[in-house]
Amino acid sequence: MGSNSSRISDLPKNEYLKKLSGTESISENDPFWNQLLSFSFPAPTSSTELKLLEEATVSVCRSLVVNNPRTGNLGALIKVFLSRTKELKLSAECQNHIFIWQTHNALFIICCLLKVFICEMSEEELQLHFTYEEKAPGSYSSDSEDLLEELLCCLMQLITDIPLLDITYDISVEAVSTMVVFLSCQLFHKEVLRQSISHKYLMRGRCLPYTSKLVKTLLYNFIRQEKPPPPGAHVLSQQSDGGGLLYGLASGVATGLWTVFTLGGVGSKAAATPELSSPLANQSLLLLLVLANLTDAADAPNPYRQAIMSFKNTQDSSPFPSSIPHTFQINFNSLYTALCEQQTSDQATLLLYTLLHQNSNVRTYVLARTDMENLVLPILEILYHVEERNSHHVYMALIILLILTEDDGFNRSIHEVILKNITWYSERVLTEISLGSLLILVVIRTIQYNMTRTRDKYLHTNCLAALANMSAQFRSLHQYAAQRIISLFSLLSKKHNKVLEQATQSLRGSLSSNDVPLPDYAQDLNVIEEVIRMMLEIINSCLTNSLHHNPNLVYALLYKRDLFEQFRTHPSFQDIMQNIDLVITFFSSRLLQAGAELSVERVLEIIKQGAVALPKDRLKKFPELKFKYVEEEQPEEFFIPYVWSLVYNSAVGLYWNPQAIQLFTMDSD
Known about the structure:
Elements: H1 15-21, H2 32-36, H3 47-71, H4 73-85, H5 88-93, H6 97-120, H7 123-129, H8 147-161, H9 169-182, H10 197-203, H11 211-224, H12 245-249, H13 279-292, H14 303-310, E1 312-313, E2 329-330, H15 332-341, H16 346-358, H17 360-368, H18 373-384, H19 391-404, H20 408-413, E3 418-420, E4 432-434, H21 435-452, H22 457-471, H23 479-512, H24 521-546, H25 551-559, H26 574-594, H27 600-613, H28 636-650
Parallel strand pairs: 1-2
Antiparallel strand pairs: 3-4
Helix pairs in contact: 1-3, 3-6, 4-6, 4-8, 6-9, 8-9, 8-11, 9-13, 11-13, 11-15, 13-16, 13-28, 15-18, 16-17, 16-19, 18-19, 18-21, 19-22, 21-22, 21-23, 22-24, 23-24, 23-25, 24-26, 25-27, 26-27
């Protein structure tokens, strides 16, 4: 490829790539490597560019697959990279642009090759390709059997030890991406991988000591959200004269390869930058989630999950328990801020769920924050825009709320936080409302959306569980929140009557015809009655524990008192209806005594006076409503495909052929 060539379609014919993938063995000390690695190549960003690059290089990669058993050129390339990384830290300190640039290019080529290798062969075959050397065809050396492990360890060292500077930003991103690619064999298996060669290397041996340092670094990359360096600040940039940095610094080294190769051609405008503000933070978070969800080894738990479960705040001076390996300390305030700011992405919400569910130190810290609204509001916004989110993102947001509502302190404090002008809530202008009332509104809206669209019983159950956990601490409910609670009960009541009528008609029809199969209305009726009972228990819990704090709920209850009449004598609801019926009767009597045509203000005043006068012992005590989130058995069957779908859709600079993916279907959300 000459200096005037700038088309991706020229890559398969490029002389240096043909030599790398050809039948000739190339020594690690050959000047060829300097020539191969001295290209100025703006990393592709869009899926279109990535697909073009993949299609253009796949023939080169397949040629290497065929010839590498004879030449060992893949191993030689990796050894060239490994030898360079030993001087990378010093090169960063000395601002050696050329050295870092060429090392990045070596890793970029390795990553491209590995992606094709992993897609087209088994892990056992891949491992063999790391052992081939320049010998007889297909021969290998026992001395090089750990080259794969050495490369993985080197990547971990690169991520954790190389200082993040403008000139090292790209190679840091590439190192994280290459580790993701190493683990991407899961994409090409329908079943969850429980035994994998890459897993084995990461969970024991030379890689294991880097566990806590790697997890800590990936978390800090997420926290810092470092943006890529501006044009002109790093080694892969182009200067204003249209030539790469190569022209000024290395024109004597590379005379023919990719010297001014850009995706759009010489002198063309740069491709539009993606919305992603920090590729390193995004890629680091994806790798962290992949590592956290690796399945346990037969003889040892996943060390990366152990690290995520056990790390502590830098303010925590207590000693680390000797029984807990791979632990470390991190600044929880910075972590909390990043989690609050990044909840628009699936992966940040999944990280928040993981930390709240698995790390008790993080959960305790979050629940003690006095600015809880900064975390809860983004989660509520995810649920509010349920139509625009994928089902997994909504599910994670809901489970986060359920975990938070397990804490009574949280349930009390959210009613003390007053919010003004919630602009994204469009059903009604909310000039002032408590965080607790807003949470109730959004969860009820999610239930109603689910009833009319997805009809997911599990979603229903978790929404109601969150409301039930909060119900005993309902305080000063907003008028609109109180109305929506009763409106939801009204909707459920109508649905109950409709299903009951259908069941009755179906029963009559079955008496005249024994041949037609009947819908299972009994099951539908049972489900809707379970939900109705749950709603009655939520209302009852609020009345029993905080009647005098919630005049608006009593007002809404009295306004729609007729809704509850049909359930007074129903055998499934008689017990729970006692308190509700008592409250309706008591306050209706006081309003009747006050006369007709009462204003809203006067009615609320009578309710407040009545709440003080009503003897508390007249309300029957029921067991406290408390629901705890419990992860399903074999959670990896859900989380591993979910995490890899996020990698597939969100990873920067990585493209996989959708036709080759087997772990999940491409049209599912």
